[in-house]
Amino acid sequence: MMTTTTIHEPVSAGVLLRENPVADLRRIDIAESEQEIVLSGIVTSYYLKQMAQETIRPVLAGRRLKNRLLVLPPK
User: Fold this and answer.
1) Residue 61 falls inside a structural domain
2) Other Cβ atoms within 10 Å of 22 Cβ, number
3) Percent of the chain, pLDDT > 90?
4) Domain CATH for 52
5) Pairing mode, if any, of strands 29-32 and 64-71?
């Protein structure tokens, strides 16, 4: 019997947010390097700011996270 192993490419933070069903999270700017991931942009609630951070946490792989999202509630 022959077995095969599938090697999966690591998922980037950008992919996780771009494919998120929450539209506000798809508009966040992401800068990734070997040392850190930086989130920036505007969201409409602290909940969305936290949701963005927790969405990318699985791909941090030891990198620092800088959450520079600005919360501006809708008028």
Assistant:
1) yes
2) 13
3) 65
4) 3.30.1340
5) unpaired
**CA 58 – CA 28 distance, rounded (Å):** 17
This prediction's pTM = 0.80
Count structural domains, the chain: 1
What does the pLDDT look like over 43-53, one tens digit per residue?
999 999 999 99
CA–CA separation, 74 and 70 (whole Å): 12
- Residues 40, 56, 20, CA angle at the centre, nearest 5°? 85
SS3 at position 6: coil
CA distance 62 to 3: 32
C-alpha angle 34-17-24 in degrees, rounded to nearest 5: 135
- Containing structural domain, residue 32: 13-71
6-15 tens-digit pLDDT: 545 567 888 8
